[in-house]
Write a structure and sequence with these properties.
Elements: E1 2-4, E2 7-9, E3 11-16, E4 19-24, E5 27-34, E6 37-40, E7 43-52, E8 55-60, E9 63-69, H1 72-79, E10 87-89, E11 94-98, E12 106-107, E13 112-118, E14 121-126, E15 131-136, E16 143-144, E17 149-153
């Protein structure tokens, strides 16, 4: 799953005898990245691409776009109301620079749960849903690896 401009899409690449094929839902197009040009169905457009973990920034045809990879497991668990949205994981390795919430605090979707630093970049990690903080697993100054469980929200189940 890829979020493009906040809309989720099922996107994948496959290979055929001529190269790569981009699949977006039921549609598909032959694609190639030739240096600084992206070819889709034979038409080339100048493109600049920057990658930051699960985020890909693409500047094409005068517009900038952010694409975000979302794990299919987390996506389907969240769609089913499962525990994936109870666990807030590190998007990259780093260290904690602020913990504005503590266990027992009520939070709204989008509230900052923890602020991390990675490669001199500060990132505010936000609550995926309304809820109550169950645990904050790292203190200021502690380091962690990518996908570490940073904060857990209390389960919404019965």
């Amino acid at each position: 799953m890829i979020a493009i401009e906040d809309a989720l899409h099922r996107v994948w690449l496959s290979r055929d005898a001529q190269g790569y094929v981009l699949h977006l839902g039921a549609q598909q197009w032959p694609v190639a990245l030739d240096g600084t040009a992206l070819r889709v169905a034979g038409a080339a457009s100048p493109v600049t691409i920057a990658v930051d973990g699960d985020r890909v920034y693409v500047h094409i045809d005068g517009a900038a776009h952010e694409l975000v990879y979302q794990s299919p497991i987390a996506f389907h668990a969240a769609e089913a109301g499962g525990p994936a949205e109870d666990m807030v994981r590190a998007p990259m390795p780093g260290s904690v620079i602020a913990t504005p919430v503590t266990a027992g605090d009520s939070v709204a979707a989008g509230d900052t749960l923890i602020v991390i630093e990675s490669m001199k970049l500060e990132t505010a990690v936000k609550a995926p849903r309304d809820g109550v903080v169950e645990t904050v697993n790292f203190a200021v100054g502690q380091s962690f690896e990518r996908d570490a469980l940073l904060v857990t929200l209390a389960s919404q189940e019965g």
